[in-house]
Amino acid sequence: MMQTTQVEVKKKMKKDFEPNIIGFLCNWCSYAGADLAGTSRMQYPPNLKVIRVMCSGRINPIFVINALQQGADGVLIGGCHPGDCHYERGNYLARRRYAILRELLDYVGIDPRRVRMTWVSASEGKKFADVVKEVTDEIRELGPIQQLKRENTW
Amino acid sequence: MVNEKQLRDEVKKLVSRDDVKYVIGYEQGTYGFQVTPSFAFTPEEAERFIFSPLCANNLSVYLMLEEKPPLRKGEKEDTRKVGLVVKGCDARAVVQILQEKGLKRESLVIIGVPCTGVIDPKKITVKFPHQIKPVDVREEGNHYVLTINGKNQKIPKDELLFEKCKQCEYPTPVIHDVLLGDEVKSTKKEEYKEIKTLEKKALKEKWEFWSKAFDRCIRCYACRNVCPLCYCKECIVDQLSPQWIYRSVNRSENTVWNLIRAYHLAGRCSGCGECERACPMNIPLTMLNKKIEKDIKELFQYVAGVNLEEKPLLAMFKPNDTEDTIL
Amino acid sequence: MKVSTMEKYILLKNKLPEWINMITPTYTIFAPVKEEDLVFFKPITKPSEMTLAYSNAIVPPKAQMFHQTETMFTFTQGKNIRVNPASLPDEKIVVFGIRPCDAKSLSIIDPVFTNDFEDPYYLTKRKNAILVGLSCNQPTVNCFCTSLNGSPASPEHLDILLTDIGDKYYVELNSEKGKQLVEKTKKLFTPATDADSKKKKDVEKKAVDAITRQMKINNVDAFVKKLDTIFDAPYWKTIAMKCLGCGACTYLCPTCHCFDIQDETTLDKGARIRVWDSCMRPEYTLHASGHNPRPERMNRVRNRVYHKYNYYPKNHQMIACVGCGRCIDNCPVNIDIIDVITKAGEVKP
Amino acid sequence: MKENPYQPWLATIDSICDEVGGQRAIKTFRLVFQDEKVREKFTFLPGQCVMVSLFGKGECFFAISSSPTQKGFIEVSVLKLGKVTSALHECEPGDVVGVRGPYGNHFDVSGWMGKNLVLIGGGIGQAPLRSLIKYVVDNRKQYGKLDIIYGARTSKDLCYTKDFAELKTCEDTNACLSIDVKEDGWSDFVGFVPDNLMRVNPSPKNAIAVTCGPPIMIKYVIQNLGKLGFSEDQIFTTLEMRMKCGIGKCGRCNIGNLYVCKDGPVFSYKQLQNIKGEQ
Amino acid sequence: MKIGVYVCECGINIAHTVDVEKVVEDVQNLPNVAVSRFYKYMCSDPGQALIKKDIKDLQLDRVVVASCSPRMHEPTFRRVLEETGLNPYFFEMVNIREQCSWVHQEKEKSTGKAIQLITGAVARASFLEPLEKKEVSVIPKALVIGGGVAGIQAALEIAEKGFKVYLVERSPSIGGRMAQLDKTFPTLDCSACILTPKMVDAARHPNIELLTYSEVVGLDGYIGNFKVKVKKKPRYVDEEKCVGCGLCAAACRLKGRIPNEFDLNKGKRSAIYVPFPQAIPLKYTIDPEKCITLKTGKCGDKALCVEACERNAINFDQKEEILELDVGTIVVATGFDLFNPMEKPEYGYGKYPNVITGLEFERLISASGPTGGHIEINGKEPKKVVFIQCVGSRDKKTHEYCSRVCCMYTAKQAHMVKEKIPGADLVIYYTDVRAFGKGFEEFYNRVQGEGIVYRRRELGDPIEVIKNNDKVLVKTKGHPDIDADLVVLATGIIPREDSKELSRILNINQSADGFFLEAHPKLRPMDTFTDGIFLAGCCQSPKDIPDAVAQASGAAVRAAEPLAQGKVEVEAISAVIDADVCGGCRMCEDLCAYSALEFDSEKKVMTCNDVMCKGCGSCASACPTGAITMRHFDMQQILAQIDGISAEAIVQ
Ligand SMILES: Cc1cc2nc3c(=O)[nH]c(=O)nc-3n(C[C@H](O)[C@H](O)[C@H](O)COP(=O)(O)OP(=O)(O)OC[C@H]3O[C@@H](n4cnc5c(N)ncnc54)[C@H](O)[C@@H]3O)c2cc1C
Ligand SMILES: Cc1cc2nc3c(=O)[nH]c(=O)nc-3n(C[C@H](O)[C@H](O)[C@H](O)COP(=O)(O)OP(=O)(O)OC[C@H]3O[C@@H](n4cnc5c(N)ncnc54)[C@H](O)[C@@H]3O)c2cc1C
Ligand code: SF4
Ligand code: SF4
Ligand code: SF4
Ligand code: SF4
Ligand code: SF4
Ligand code: SF4
Q: Which of B7, D215, E72, E190 has its CA 20 to 30 A from that of E613?
């Protein structure tokens, strides 16, 4: 079992590695921004898979870590721009949590570029597409995550 | 250091009061350099109290550990105060608990000990691995004087001190009802040298360092139980649905456990170092805690456990908090 | 399985690496390895990796038979539920350098895993393991095996016992398994002389003398019975006041064998695993209804002591403590079993 | 090596009976082993338990609530409480679970032959008694008088109403139900189970009393049995403790030196009085 | 558990980049999936019918639809479930159009992504819990805080709609700032003439209960069921008996010796007083700070007012009262304060009597003011008058925003001076003249045509006023100095001093400038973040009277809506706290923007009021023990979704 995973990892290491990225987007701004990118037919890589939450404040750092454990190579957190939170302050709280989490991940040796945060408003379809492109490229560059992934060796 | 007679007298006075349930302090341990927590309900029991450079435990952990069995019909809640002997770092834990409103200020009587540093039990046992008989340890200037088998030995303080004590910024309890002895002023500044060195290393090296440490973790959770601020009724790792972290002991889960523990103490950890002291597997937990302590100081100008009025770090924000890495 | 007359040999110290190299291809060798000032039993590939100058491993070698995490079996979830038995390892192992007390602990927990229902995970590993012990020449501060009829140089629960008697090891073969292991590598061993035997006795005596901390109870059996009379003594409360319920004592105790069983899953498959558990935790006995038969720390502290010194002797005629001192070393608040038992002996019924 | 005692056999939920609704719902599941051989091999006696698995959720210990005289299936009645039991309540017929067992001791059905039986139950505690009742009814001649006393808070909380409807029509069986508070249309006793026991007033002569239910009920029932003249060794009960392995290894279900999973769950009151340990 | 998965082709919108057939085939094998189908237009009637049929025939427990954005059709499909008797929250939607087929071109990859997303949704779906839409009943009464023109307007409008209104005013009379004004720009109608009838209407309206000389000191509850604590200060005059004859004031020993705040301390009053003659209610009030009896217990040999009052209305034993009101909605109309020009010492305000503020000037020219409308300074009629605009406004050091009314009231005041002292020399220092309102530009032009000199001063250019005998010298950059008899400072509008305190009591927010914060600057300008509390007038931002009144009318409509409905629906997605798990660490307590969390000090656990909770989830992710579960977004559901999306089995 252990071996097969390693083989898999090696296989993934190849150029054609397609990172699995989880995006947590808030319902009001960034999810709407992503929808706008869609209605405007802006193209971006398909690696990001979105999980919709009501507010970026809902994103418990455990979600992020758990995503890395369960097989995400990267995580993107999207919220409303500061001051625009539908719930007034959820994004501000998320921003603090994110700052600490990112530092901590870096500190234990997990590339912090795997966990990103962005502000995308409902009108920023273009920005959303750009951010996804940027993040996907970066994580593709970093290769598959080796550290936190659950081996599930059973 | 503290005049033990004064300490005992103070405790005796307290336990004789009707509104005080008991006082928590230290007494001589069962062997070598051990000191053990002690609960004095009566003046006689207060006689056992000591304070020496070996008193490393942070007794404030007992504040939230007190078991309150459900009241029987007609029974009234015991609202008597609990007395507690605290050093500088311990007091910060108390402040933090009070700040989180875990306890009411009036439910405590705090006996503050201006602290000149305590001895790291790991360091001293390495020096005297076979010491069985309890040892008297005194502080004399920059040295500790140990009386072993009637003979005195002088050891430079630096060799025995806890690392945390060398950089302690709050040696005098920030909160107290009684202060035993004169205030100790600190000119030290936490420089986070070790942290900064590690921060600068390559990701790979950092991961190697930590994964080796976390691999040792047996998930006994001693670090959690000894921590005065880990007082959740049901820790996430004990919950079944959802399983936040799997119970399997392996690198992935261990890492997550250690990260989450540290994260849950962000802006709360008092820096007492008990977690690391309790960890049987010598995992450098302080290096995780201090990292967060440093970050929040730099990013949010936040210091835990010094201000009773402060709001929890992660429950508030400033509109101009850092945006550095946000896309 | 025990051999009636023990065979005794001498292995020169400088031959030890050779011996280990010789058995390495056939066995996975677990030996004491130092990491961060702590000693762990870890698989080694070269003799140089191990440290024999040690007192006690931090995690007892029970972990080699009773893994902290064990997959019991796997299953597929969803439409087609299937159960796939976990493959039980047939790997042969040698636990090298295990202390007599730790070896005894395995004999103590054996009945738990054999009783009524045989525990395949423990037993396969136990059966496949050869215990090559190393006498304890330098007991730690908190060693007190002699209080419990143990000895730092007893071959009793071992397949082979080595005793460092200067430039050579005095080798005692205590079982068929042990004999077989030596048999194949016979050329490294020479028969022991009476002088060697005497030397071993001296070493043993020196080690026994070095153990100064003792439980001050006159008669162990009487003490076991006495516990029945002080179950409700307020004494337990005074100890429990200090206890943090951290569980370090139980996790590291070589005779603690409690475990928890949980399911871990991903989308369509999963595993039932078992992990060490600790009776010092409130969740340990908490019922789904919220009722907890051992709600207070006092109940749990007392249960730990009673389990070892009363219940276990009642069920298996053995005290479930070998006097390794780990729980004393690692308790952050100095709850000291030697002291606890000694004082319990003084409690009036 | 023998069979792995931790590995369950697969069983299919054949049917589900809703006993009680609401927050603390109870359902009875009829389980049929998938493997024919297991179906034959699996024998048990009233009072014994099984470990039921829901793969991915975990395992739970339940008393078998059907009788050994009913062949081809076993039944367990489950009170919805925590993770596994809640998930079980979501199951539908046809779903697959794991079962291992039978575990624990049992009511001494052969030793009690010829005796009068007083069975006093409350709530989900009725599950093991149901097995016993059915067993006794199916071997009716071998036992003396049969008094069944069972109660719940309201009529909606009573389990096994179908069984009781049948039992009421049995001639030589005295089934006495009770509810705690008065309700319209309730013709049986109103009051607590221990009071109902006093009202029924069974004779201790040549009798065995078995009581299962919430601890507080057991406490008063035993008191009252004492008042009625039952001696300690005439009274039996079943105990509950948190379980993991069910086979005396994982450690947690001990009461003193006894393990509920293998030395229990059936204990005589006399036995209980002699153990030092938390119950 | 039986889950039905429905994949929409959306014509070719989805089908052209996502291989729907393959998707349906693959997800068929996922745990718990009982059926998976695709269809051309899932949202169409036949599409919906398809789902309904399956729910009935196959007894589905959960439904997953993969189509467009949930922001579009989630309600549609929820309704489908509802109509089939399934809880609408047993539905999960996957967005494979906006966030998949429209943004990717490679069919294989889009198909793969669609499968991953659906797998996540399926994994999540099995953990979905039923939710109930919650409704709370509404107490059909409203509270209006602040009796300025905005408050009066709001109160009248709500009252007109048939609901009881409590109008709480802090001062002894309603009327607010507008009552202090003389004429109003741009139409120059007399402020009192248009305001007084409204004040009378408010006082007379059967549905309005005036609570003057009162303050709101506490608020509990939530929309529909607010519990308000109002402190009614003692007037020491029985309102029932007092007819406002004023005999008492005339008799008072301190008559004419106490500066009158209403006149900005320019006029004088007695210790027993009404702020102005048209005060509503016209009831006298004793100033406790000044009254000799109240301060010393004795006023000469007898209290003259008591003596004078024929109706025995005076009662020194009156005590403060706390009233508890139950209301459904609240309008906040507490108005504004004026910038204190002492903060800018260069203007010489406070130092020289020749320098006054705009509002002081209003009193000065008011016929009911201290001088009876006669403009005089140091007893003389000023000949040279200088107006300075933007005092305290548009100034980075004080207040960055524009106060919106100063340009116009300065123009108005200049015009009034011209009217009253035709020969006067008038200079206005301005930075920009903002004449944006209806009729403003015309008015400004008219004033300019009256020979009033407008001098431009760059934003930030210093201006200094220094003494020059009994006149003052106004010095600025780029213009000659002016020797003025009178300088009028157009001081800006600032948030009331007690805004912070009030925002705390009401749990509403302040924006960075200190005014109360609206829920949305454009779309919900009268709402606050707290449901059921609305804003009107200058408490939200500087405004002129028409704007204040317009907003008040709007707020009245918003506030009356729930009252008319009789019930309000509140968010079903909310936080729930497990009391068995909550350790009472109170990490979450202050973080909720809606104060939905309250500590139960008895049980030592946090509680969440799910009527107030908006379901953001910020608290749930702060709670270290996970005691807080977010309905519909709980931990289990999200972890399962991550698991599903990332499951090895699916990732090719
Ligand atoms: C001898 C015996 C007979 C029982 N018979 C029945 C019965 O017939 N019907 C019935 O509804 N219940 C019975 N129970 C109780 C039943 O086992 C628990 O209610 C059930 O295990 C709760 O599991 P959970 O996963 O829902 O709860 P959780 O709180 O999620 O519990 C987690 C785990 O703890 C263990 N556990 C928790 N509480 C108990 C407990 N009280 N007993 C045993 N294990 C527990 C289980 O391993 C469980 O999986 C019996 C218990 C015992 C000991
Ligand atoms: C010098 C000057 C001249 C102006 N001239 C004109 C003009 O010509 N034309 C024009 O359209 N606009 C003019 N304005 C603007 C006009 O005054 C305002 O638009 C208007 O008064 C706003 O009314 P309001 O009800 O919002 O506030 P306010 O009039 O301030 O009323 C608020 C009321 O609330 C009360 N209150 C405050 N806090 C509390 C509390 N906590 N509890 C209870 N009650 C409370 C106050 O006592 C007050 O009665 C002028 C403003 C100034 C400063
Ligand atoms: S105390 Fe050490 S070994 Fe135990 S859980 Fe904490 S970090 Fe792991
Ligand atoms: S985390 Fe460690 S250092 Fe911080 S308060 Fe807890 S025990 Fe002390
Ligand atoms: S109880 Fe303590 S001394 Fe005894 S075997 Fe266990 S760890 Fe060793
Ligand atoms: S190690 Fe000490 S504190 Fe921890 S559970 Fe054991 S006895 Fe208690
Ligand atoms: S979910 Fe948001 S609105 Fe609801 S209680 Fe928590 S923080 Fe407040
Ligand atoms: S954060 Fe969690 S544990 Fe703490 S008070 Fe709030 S709900 Fe309770």
A: E72
Best probe of the B interface among C209, C213, C242, by most B CBs < 10 A, is C242
Three-class secondary structure of residue E370 per DSSP:
coil
D236 to chain B nearest CA, in Å? 29
Residues C175 and C238 in one domain: no
Give, for ligand 8, the residue of E574, E576, E578, E585 to mutate: max count of ligand atoms closer than 8 Å to Cβ: E585
Q: Which residue of B has its CA nearest to A85?
A: B319
Q: How many domains does chain B have?
A: 2
Cα distance between residue B326 and residue B299, in whole Å: 14
- Separation of alpha carbons B146 and E587, rounded Å: 45
Task: State the Cα–Cα distance between residues E235 and E240, nearest whole angstrom.
Answer: 12
Alpha-carbon gap, residue C213 to C195, rounded angstroms: 30
Supply the ipTM of this predicted assembly. 0.87
Model confidence band, residue A153 (pLDDT cutoffs 50, 70, 90): low
| Contact state of B326 with A117 under an 8 Å Cβ cutoff | yes
pLDDT at B241: 80
- Structural domains of chain A sorted by starting position, each given as residue range(s) with its CATH number in brackets: 18-142 (3.40.50.960)
Centre of ligand 5 to C-alpha C324, Å, is 5
Instruction: Please write down the long-range contacts of E449-455, taking CB distance under 8 Å and 24 or more positions apart.
Output: E450/E414, E450/E415, E450/E418, E451/E418, E451/E426, E452/E414, E452/E415, E452/E418, E452/E426, E452/E427, E452/E428, E453/E425, E453/E426, E453/E427, E453/E428, E454/E428, E454/E430, E455/E427, E455/E428, E455/E429, E455/E430, E455/E479
CATH topology of domain D9-103: Elongation Factor Tu (Ef-tu); domain 3 (2.40.30)
Same domain, C252 and C229: yes
DSSP assignment letter at C64? G
Q: In this structure, are residues C336 and C328 in contact, taking their beta carbons and an 8 Å threshold? A: yes
For residue A97, what is the nearest residue in chain B, using CA coordinates? B314
Residue B254 Cα: closest atom of ligand 3:
8
Q: Which CATH number fits domain D116-238: 3.40.50.1100, 3.40.50.80, 3.40.50.410, 3.30.420.40?
A: 3.40.50.80
Q: Alpha-carbon distance B30 to B46, whole Å?
A: 18
pLDDT value at residue D201? 86
pLDDT at res. D1: 43
pTM of the model: 0.81
Look at residue E484 and give its three-state secondary structure: strand
Residue B156, pLDDT above cutoff 90: yes
Any C CB within 8 A of B30 CB: yes
Q: Which residue range(s) make up the domain with C151?
A: 7-210
Instruction: Report whether pLDDT(E651) > 70.
Output: no
- pLDDT beyond 50 at E417: yes
Between the alpha carbon of residue E648 and those of residues A21, A136, A150, B131, E30, the distances in Å are: 14, 19, 11, 55, 13
Specify burial of residue C271 (Cβ count, 10 A radius: 0-12, 13-18, 19+): buried
* Range in C49-58, D162-171, E284-293 the model is least confident about: D162-171
Ligand 8, CB cutoff 6 Å, lining residues = E 577, 582-588, 606, 622-623, 625, 627-628
Model confidence band, residue A13 (pLDDT cutoffs 50, 70, 90): low
Contact between B89 and B273 (Cβ < 8 Å): yes
CB contact under 8 A, A44 and E104: yes
| pLDDT value at A1 more than 60 | no
Q: Are residues C141 and B131, on separate chains, in Cβ contact within 8 Å? A: yes
Is the Cβ pair C266, E32 closer than 8 Å? no
With touching defined as 3 or more inter-chain CB pairs under 8 Å, the answer for chains A and E is: yes
Contact criterion met (CB < 8 Å) for B241 and E588: no
- Give tens-digit pLDDT for E189-202: 999 999 999 999 99
- Which residue CA neighbors atom 3 of ligand 3 most closely? B217
Residues of chain C with pLDDT under 50: 1-3
